[in-house]
Amino acid sequence: MTVRSVLILQSHPSAFCRALVEEFEAHNVKYTIVNFSLSDWYFRVGLGAQAYWGRLKNWQSRLERLIDENGITDILYYADRRPYHRIAHDVAMQRGINTFAYEFGYMRPDWITLERGGMGVYSHFPNDPAKIKQSAANLPELKPTSHFPHAFLQEATNEVICNLIPIFFPYLFPFYQRDRYYHPLRDYFSYIPRLMRQKRLGQEADEAVNTLIQEQAEYFVVPMQMQGDYQIRHHSHYKHLSGFIRELYSTFSQSASAESKLVFKLHPFDNNVENWPKVIREIAAEFGCLERTIIIDGGNLNQLLRHSRGCVLVNSTVGMEALKSGVPVKAMGIAVYDIAGLTDQRSLDDFWREPALPDADLYHDLEKLMGHTIQVHGSFFNSEGRKIAAQEFVKRILEDGVNGHGAFVETPPRLEQAKAAGVPIPANCYWSDK
């Protein structure tokens, strides 16, 4: 039996790493933790972590020494496209070491994603409907999940602490390289005007959704994502979301019925730097669609989706919510759920005219297979949720159950799609079982 030794790199800004360490200790698994910034230290103080004070360009050599000195067999980290994690992934692939990346769940709420080898473009989750159905057939049904509530203030506070501590106190880790689209000060201070209007904006959004439903309006939902999101920067071909918006209107203006409207729902955590309402209105006016455009900041998303003709997005997890509700979905970026039979595989022009309904049985099998392989029930912010998730993390890692049940393929099946779409793909970006 292989003796496991886990290297833990950057973690989610919460007490989740502590829960993982407790589980590794309970199973007598050796672990090594590395801090890259003061925020890493803040959330993991007392766990015996080593500090990396060097430059990013020297991280690979330090990582290779860590692997040799500690007999590392597995590397675990939060967010697989961070600079330090991309290097770790490549080194691990060359050495035949497992890498496990985790983030918020595809099946929200109360789920966490845990994948071996990468996510999005780099995910090894199958995109063949027949393989998904076959692999899910003999798996038990997912049990009803309990909920792990937490206060929004806790989540927001953790995020602010995580991103501002390295800015105000850079001296202990002077060479730490952030991978943020915006400078944190600009990012967070831009929230203030929006927060001041949040109550009024929410009321206006509720009124707009109720009016659409009462009038039985014909509309498509466009859930906006954040410009700085890894899902946009690494798993789509859009350099700026204005390109996505422009692409929508270029076809909507020509192919959608004259009665159809586009309803843009702003992301609840958007920092307001881009001023999306202004950008959307300017592009809509350019294509003569301003009167057919509605922009809301708040409102009940599920209610909005259920009464819509369809949902168009880049690759947001909102797509999973829409599919589960039987709503047609068109994904314009690389998404793990972008699968024939679920999302509409035709052109946008065809989607506006007659959106294709998702296969409910296939979605059921997708969720079941995900729940037994790359989705872990739990929460980062709820103590019980952390404990349950950490137990399942360690169990799957030690039993080689991540990306299991024979459904996963060697080469990430979305790579060719990403290349064809113009998504930049670095060399040596995925593992193989060969």
Notes on the structure:
The protein has 434 residues and is α/β, with parallel strands linked by helices. 42% of the residues lie in helices and 12% in strands. It has helices spanning 16-26, 38-44, 59-70, 83-95, 129-137, 152-168, 184-189, 191-196, 198-214, 230-233, 241-255, 276-286, 301-306, 318-324, 348-353, 360-373, 383-398, 415-421, and strands spanning 5-8, 30-35, 50-51, 74-78, 98-104, 111-116, 219-223, 261-265, 293-296, 310-313, 329-331, 375-377. A 7-stranded mixed β-sheet has the order 3-2-1-4-5-6-12. It has a 5-stranded parallel β-sheet with strand order 9-8-7-10-11, with helices on both faces. It is globular, with a radius of gyration of 22 Å. The two termini are 21 Å apart. InterPro entries: Capsule_polysaccharide_synth. This is Capsular polysaccharide export protein. Pfam families: Capsule_synth (PF05159).
What topology emerges from the helices and strands here?
Elements lengths: L4 E4 L7 H11 L3 E6 L2 H7 L5 E2 L7 H12 L3 E5 L4 H13 L2 E7 L6 E6 L12 H9 L14 H17 L15 H6 L1 H6 L1 H17 L4 E5 L6 H4 L7 H15 L5 E5 L10 H11 L6 E4 L4 H6 L3 E4 L4 H7 L4 E3 L16 H6 L6 H14 L1 E3 L5 H16 L16 H7 L13
Parallel strand pairs: 1-2, 1-4, 2-3, 4-5, 7-8, 7-10, 8-9, 10-11
Antiparallel strand pairs: 5-6, 6-12
Helix pairs in contact: 1-17, 2-6, 3-4, 5-16, 11-12
